[in-house]
Backbone:
């Protein structure tokens, strides 16, 4: 598996990855790469980030043994990696603390970011408030409606939120708009990308900052059980919490890695966002990877109940892990995710984000058929408070936030 | 020298951009003809893309209109074939990496070349990634046109030295669209380009008025106008050909 690491250094994961962005951004992206290569080995930077992770974000996050769920499903022992307990309520803080600190070291005074569900936007606005950076967030207009609470939250943190009215008005369009904004102002601004996507070096930077999840969980499970898990499960949109959950286990070939993508109304229904199931090779948003698209390469409109997984592509390293068979990706429908959302709430008293519920749904499918001495580690990437009103509406209950 | 060179022979070139199929095939064909008849030296035919990240709102909307009318890459090739029945001026495509890559680069450039196109501009394919398309383009005699931006700095000479067809000099930061003023030090950029190559350089992004066109054409070998013309298409619909003709003549006189 050393080949995986080697390829990552060059910005390619097998044939996936690359730097497909306008010339205007090329010097800036090279500067970012050089700065990252320097600071990731700078003891002062590493210590500063570690301190922020511990004292501000609340790391390490718990690895919780879900005993009731384990008993109820009757198979594998289920451990939940509780990224929902981080400050700001999701794994997104891991990446933004790193990137905003890096921006600061680079002398930037302003950060911009895209957001889907609002978790990355909230995390970026939070880090910007903490580190005295100007902050502007781009969010699809449709998402500003279904996640209106998060819009206000970002504004409360001092960020300016732009509702993106172009295209399909969701996450993909928010990325388009953030990239356009970055080309108009590079000198003082870093685009803090929220997932393991986009042009090199973003997939590598975001992966490295998120890999704290598996660094911790690997040590925690060895401590608790004296052995590695059989399966690690996480939800996948662009794929940042999944790559973070997988990364330290890639070399442990006996550990099965499973990513759960959003199948919306079903992989055979046009309303889905299942890139691995339905996507094909393409070049978009700076990277060569798999995308949902038509025969002429027009990017397809995608759908999921989860604004955070509602993306027509997937990070290049995931496409690579799938291509070599190291990780497996499964589609989960809206209905399955909502049932998992309700199940975890009732069974363990943990309300997971609707994104994370896609991972929980797959645990519910496979755990009963696994031996009792086997272990699943499932990442709860975020908390579900933001989704309660939307799930109520899904179930036909009108709630006003 | 390719047909593209003809646009720059002993004159300043006026390069005109329109999105193919905006607002529909027939009107778009008439618009291109009007622009050519009015004196454009080279035309840039935009192959519409769902997510054009280098475009401002005007061209984004044109792409949506074109795609909604059923425009496809194959129909864009047909449009160029239709133009080639009457005209011999250089024609280049302008589109994004994905429509070319997903179509299959080899098949794309074969069909593009057979249709009669001379080159291609792909704003989301920088110098480092040109290997993705350059060889297939060259195989069918098409120039892969390079872009140089206000932020290119130390990259200018390297890019210019291997440039083919013409060099697209991006006038300003940001995306395409009309601008009231252009503040980039273009003279220094053009000077560096000229030290590295004889390939002509044309300035685009933000040029809309005859005055701007006149100023820019003094600095470089040509000027590129896009959004200002697309705006006319959006405003006048079926009446656009006459308005475009008037507009092109005003720019042509200025350069």
Residues:
């Amino acid at each position: 598996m050393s080949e995986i690491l080697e390829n990552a250094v060059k910005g390619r994961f097998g044939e996936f990855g690359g730097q497909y962005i306008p010339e205007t951004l090329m010097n800036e992206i090279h500067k970012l790469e050089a700065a990252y290569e320097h600071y990731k080995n700078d003891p002062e930077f590493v210590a500063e980030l570690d301190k922020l992770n511990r004292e501000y974000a609340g790391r390490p996050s718990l690895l919780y043994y879900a005993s009731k769920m384990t008993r109820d499903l009757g198979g594998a022992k289920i451990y939940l990696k509780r990224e929902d307990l981080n400050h700001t309520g999701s794994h997104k803080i891991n990446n933004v603390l790193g990137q905003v600190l890096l921006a600061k070291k680079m002398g930037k005074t302003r950060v911009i970011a895209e957001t889907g569900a609002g978790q990355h936007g909230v995390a970026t606005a939070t880090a910007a408030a903490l580190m005295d950076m100007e902050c502007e967030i781009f969010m699809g207009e449709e998402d500003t409606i279904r996640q209106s609470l998060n819009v206000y939250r970002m504004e409360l943190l001092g960020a300016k939120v732009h509702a993106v009215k172009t295209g399909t008005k969701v996450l993909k369009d928010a990325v388009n708009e953030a990239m356009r904004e970055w080309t108009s102002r590079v000198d003082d601004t870093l685009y803090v990308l929220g997932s393991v996507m986009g042009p090199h070096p973003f997939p590598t930077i975001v992966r490295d900052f998120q890999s704290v999840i598996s660094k911790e969980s690997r040590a925690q499970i060895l401590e608790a059980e004296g052995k590695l898990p059989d399966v690690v499960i996480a939800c996948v949109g662009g794929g940042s919490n999944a790559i973070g959950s997988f990364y330290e286990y890639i070399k442990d070939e006996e550990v099965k890695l499973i990513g759960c993508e959003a199948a919306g109304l079903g992989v055979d229904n046009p309303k889905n966002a299942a890139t691995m199931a339905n996507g094909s090779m393409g070049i978009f948003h700076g990277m060569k990877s798999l995308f949902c698209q038509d025969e002429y390469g027009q990017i397809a409109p995608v759908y999921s109940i989860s604004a955070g997984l509602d993306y027509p592509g997937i990070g290049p390293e995931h496409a690579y892990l799938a291509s070599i068979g190291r990780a497996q990706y499964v589609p989960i429908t809206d209905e399955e995710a909502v049932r998992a959302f309700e199940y975890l709430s009732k069974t363990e008293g943990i309300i997971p984000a609707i994104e994370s519920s896609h991972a929980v749904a797959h645990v519910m499918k496979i755990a009963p058929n696994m031996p009792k001495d086997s272990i699943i580690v499932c990442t709860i990437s975020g908390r579900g408070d933001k989704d309660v009103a939307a799930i109520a509406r899904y179930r036909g209950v009108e709630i006003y936030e | 020298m390719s047909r593209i060179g003809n646009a720059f022979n002993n004159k300043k070139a006026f390069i005109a951009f329109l999105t193919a199929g905006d607002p529909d095939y027939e009107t778009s064909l008439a618009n291109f003809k009007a622009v050519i008849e009015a004196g454009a030296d080279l035309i840039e035919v935009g192959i519409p893309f769902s997510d054009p990240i280098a475009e401002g709102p005007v061209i984004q909307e044109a792409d949506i209109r074109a795609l909604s009318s059923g425009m496809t890459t194959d129909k864009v090739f047909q449009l160029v074939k239709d133009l080639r029945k009457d005209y011999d001026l250089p024609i280049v495509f302008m589109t994004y990496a994905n429509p070319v890559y997903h179509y299959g680069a080899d098949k794309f450039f074969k069909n593009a070349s057979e249709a009669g196109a001379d080159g291609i501009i792909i704003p989301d394919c920088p110098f480092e990634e040109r290997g993705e398309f350059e060889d297939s383009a060259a195989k069918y005699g098409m120039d892969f046109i390079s872009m140089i931006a206000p932020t290119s700095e130390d990259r200018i000479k390297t890019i210019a030295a291997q440039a083919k067809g013409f060099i697209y000099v991006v006038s300003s930061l940001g995306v395409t669209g009309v601008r009231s003023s252009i503040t980039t030090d273009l003279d220094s950029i053009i000077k560096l380009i000229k030290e590295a190559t004889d390939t002509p350089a044309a300035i685009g992004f933000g040029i809309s008025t005859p005055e701007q066109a006149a100023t820019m054409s003094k600095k470089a070998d040509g000027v590129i106008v896009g959004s200002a013309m697309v705006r006319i298409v959006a405003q006048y619909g079926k009446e656009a050909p006459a308005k475009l003709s008037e507009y092109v003549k005003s720019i042509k006189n200025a350069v």
Notes: The longest strand of chain B covers residues 13-19. Chain B has twelve helices and nine strands. Chain B has a mean pLDDT of 96.
